[in-house]
Predict the 3D structure of the following.
Amino acid sequence: MPRCTNCNYKWSGKDILALGFSKNGKDCPNCGNRQYLSSETQKLFTLGYLSLIFVPFLLFKIKLSNKDEPIW
């Protein structure tokens, strides 16, 4: 499971799904520092509906970032 880059807090699956649908990132539930999906993770989710099939497996590949990184 992904961890906050600031406090190393382990995010829940529910928080990760909320972050995935958020365009402005999401605050860490523990320290309040804004977190975003890393560009590497965003590229994984550009597979469209195919990526939804692999969501349980992708939860272990998701990485967070302190910065709002562009996909490309």
